[in-house]
Structures are given as C-alpha cells and as structure tokens.
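Quick check before the chapter quiz. The format below is the same one you will see on the exam, so make sure you can read both the input and the output lines.
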Amino acid sequence: MCLTEYNEAETMQQFKEEGREEGRAEERKNTERERKRAEKEKQRAEKAEARVRELEAELAREKASNK
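Here is the expected output.
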C-alpha cells in the first residue's frame, strides 16, 4: 500500500500551473533583457547622431574659414 495518496488530476494540474508560472517568469526576464538591450541601442544611436552633428558643424566651420 502506498503511504501517500494523491489525486493524480490535481497533481498534474499543479505541475501545469507551476510550468506556466516558470514560463511566464522566464518571459518576463527575456522581455526585461530586450528592453535593456533596446535602451542601450537607442543611447548608442543618439550618441552617434550627436557625433555626426558635431563633425558636420566642424566641417562647416572649416569651409567657412577657408572662404
């Protein structure tokens, strides 16, 4: 005789719920990781655009001084 009896359907349902929650937690981590990656990429793009503007202004000043 088994010392511990359990309801198989209930146990399977608990396993499913635990699996779903683990999946949701992993998805939240992935979403947060993607958000951070996108934010870093946005910052890099903004820095690059600012540098391009600086170089364009420098070039315009040099052209103006050569006239």
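If your answer matched, good. The radius of gyration is 29 Å.
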